[in-house]
Design brief:
Elements: H1 5-8, E1 29-32, E2 35-38, E3 48-50, E4 56-63, H2 66-75, H3 77-81, H4 93-106, E5 111-119, E6 127-140, E7 148-157, H5 160-164, H6 180-194, E8 201-204, H7 210-219, E9 223-224, H8 235-239, E10 246-248, H9 251-259
Parallel strand pairs: 7-8
Antiparallel strand pairs: 1-2, 3-4, 4-5, 5-6, 6-7, 8-10, 9-10
């Protein structure tokens, strides 16, 4: 099934449009033909990651395309599947990406997909994927059902072993980017800020990740919804009741998490 770029990645959120920090909901107005228009405001995506050598690896955040999905399933997912401890073991992105779009559209929740890539002028697209995520942008918030929140459905990062085996770009141990999970989660937070959701993001920590995965999300600043607390109305309340593994960012926690990566939003 072909899933086009514009279907998974709404135009208003393309990285090149994200010019002004909107975490405090600031902006400018302009008069155009007698109409008062609010200037687009946005938070930049991360554009570099630290590496073990003490330097930085240039990154780019782009629309999730079928080409990214096919490449990931062929080059990265087999390495993930050899590690039984990973929560994303056995994922099939040829199904994951279309599912997010089709289901998200059906329930009018604004689906989107992102690919984080290492900038590499030698590759066909100018970068090599190192993290993927899909989300919907208009779910009801877990902690306050009156508000709207982004909800991450799938998030994955490339293992070091997978990146080091690539021919381009060639990577030694000290060249591999760090903090890819944090950066991928930040993409969801940035999407939330840039679509008027004030950084609110929620997700369900896959049970396969055990307590370690849940602890990692808490370390990022997310709060775990108390087990048994009622979920917002919708299909998740019916098919995936609260098992204590739903996590969410509050507005304050999202702002803090976002600002911790501000140094990585600056061009080298």
């Amino acid at each position: 099934m072909h899933v086009g770029e514009d279907l998974l990645y709404p135009l208003p959120c393309r990285p090149e449009h994200l010019l002004v920090d909107c975490r405090h909901e600031v902006g400018e107005s302009a008069i155009v033909r007698g109409m008062r228009l609010r200037r687009w405001t946005g938070t930049r995506f991360v554009c570099r990651a630290p590496n073990r050598g003490g330097g930085y690896v240039p990154l780019r955040v782009a629309a999730l395309t079928p080409e990214h999905v096919l490449w990931w399933q062929a080059e990265i997912q087999p390495v993930i599947d050899r590690d039984p401890t990973r929560a994303d073991n056995g994922w099939n992105w040829l199904l994951v990406a279309p599912f997010t779009f089709l289901a998200g559209t059906a329930i009018t929740h604004g689906p989107a997909g992102y690919c984080v890539g290492i900038v590499d002028e030698e590759s066909e697209d100018g970068f090599v994927p190192c993290a993927l995520l899909t989300l919907v942008g208009r779910m009801r918030a877990l902690d306050d059902h009156r508000k709207r929140s982004a909800f991450v459905w799938f998030l994955t990062t490339a293992p070091e072993a997978a990146l080091r085996r690539l021919e381009s770009p060639p990577m030694g141990r000290d060249d591999v980017p760090k903090r890819l999970g944090t950066i991928a989660l930040d993409v969801a937070v940035t999407h939330s800020f840039n679509t008027g959701r004030r950084g609110l993001v929620a997700l369900h920590a896959a049970p396969e990740g055990g307590e370690r995965l849940l602890a990692w999300y808490r370390k990022q600043g997310m709060t775990a919804l108390q087990e048994g607390k009622r979920l917002p109305r919708g299909f998740r309340r019916l098919i995936a009741p609260n098992d204590g593994r739903y996590c969410y960012f509050t507005k304050r926690a999202a702002e803090q998490a976002s600002r911790r990566l501000d140094d990585l939003r600056k061009e080298a």
